[in-house]
Amino acid sequence: QVQLVESGGGLVQAGGSLRLSCAASGTVFIYAMGWYRQAPGKQRELVASITNSGRTNYADSVKGRFTISRENAKNTMYLQMDSLKPEDTAVYYCNADGLTVLGLRNNYWGQGTQVTVSS
Questions:
Q1: Which one of 1, 44, 82, 83 has the minimum C-beta count within 10 Å?
Q2: Per residue in 9-31, is it b (16+ CB within 10 Å) or e — as a string?
């Protein structure tokens, strides 16, 4: 059973910074990982993704402000969020494409962490 646990969310003023973490367990290999977010009344959207080799991809709305990274040895992914804006307010979800010890490859989600940016 693969589990993803996010941490690091919270309340911050506009212009501030937060760092999210996502720790994966129960997996022997993780392919791509990503951060998604969902604001009230809106669809879940991709924020940033990173492959096992470190290739990254960002939503246009966060380019230049957010940085995604991962430590493969620790099965952990991070999202450094700088210059936060009120429109970044959402629940942020960790996502991973992983391989279990039984050799099953599947897509997994964390429980989400709330990020609130006040104006």
A1: 1
A2: beebeeeeebebbbbbeebeebe
Q: Which own/partner pairs from 71-76 qualify as long-range (CB within 8 Å, at least 24 positions apart)?
A: 72/30, 74/23, 75/23, 75/24, 75/25, 75/27, 75/30, 76/21, 76/22, 76/23, 76/24
Yes or no: say if 2 and 94 are a contact pair by the CB < 8 Å rule. no
For 74, phi and psi rounded to 5 degrees?
A: -105, 0
Kindly report, residue by residue over 21-75, the tens digit of the pLDDT: 999 998 889 999 999 999 999 999 999 999 999 999 999 999 999 999 999 999 9
